[in-house]
Write the structure tokens for this entry.
Amino acid sequence: MIECLLYSKPNCLTPVTVMFVSAIEEVGRFTRPIHTISRNYGETIVNPGAATLFFVNDEGCAVTCKHVINLIGNRKAINDRYEKFKQARQKIEPGDHLAQQIEALETEYNYKPGTLVQLKEMFVGVTTEPKFNFRWICHPAYDLAIIQFENFRNARYQSHARFLKDSSLLKQGKSLCRLGFPFAEFTNFIYNAEIDDIDWTQTGQTETPRFPIEGMLTRHLVSGGEIMGIELSTPGLRGQSGGPVFDTNGIICGMQMSTNHLHLGFDMKDFEYKINGRQIKVTNQPFLHVGHCIHVDIIKRFLRENNIRFYEH
């Protein structure tokens, strides 16, 4: 009897210690990263970033966050604007007022340190096709978007999401897991000083390891009189935006969208603390970082409204 307490089922066949192991393997078959590289004005450092999407069927349809799509959707405008700026700068004749002319051009384009001037994205592990098109549909109210890869062939993902059919099972205390790509470890990019541009390369590390993080369902999120999300007791990490939220069976219960910061009220100011025999003063304002996720019912309804096939369990 004592031994059975270590197991999640009365028949003692499924150890608690395995928890999300099988679910992560299953969900990982259709969850993929979006890699981005970007550069700020006046810098030569290339900034890698990542987000997440997951496929809902075998027809090349996936979901992710609207804020991810908004960034990618502005890519062409961001890059084209910087190309025009470079062309205008090249036309400036050297002279005594070179610095002033460049400053005036920077003001015209509203470029200053920290301004994003270049951005490129790569969908990793989606298809073996070297080139493909995609379109997107953004939810009018929530941080949710559908991506449809057009003329889709030779998929590199396997399987697809199975959405929770009965959302009444999502109650406080339920353990859920998220999967995504929060730590951008890929290095296959470069800054080309000769043409002042960033680009992908055939060398370097091309992948970023997936990263799961579990949490307890703490609260339901309400907007406009409807439940539109769930809150988890642990934060969603940067790069997990658009990643699936699932139970121990790998059934999709939502999608990670953001992290909220709850002030705990345990503030300390000049709190005296002794460490290694030395008295120090500490000032601290602690916060609890919780994950906010789009509710499964919102995702399913949006897919239905756009005639996207999906599966329930």
About this structure: Helices lie at 21-27, 66-73, 75-90, 98-109, 296-305. The longest helix spans residues 75-90.
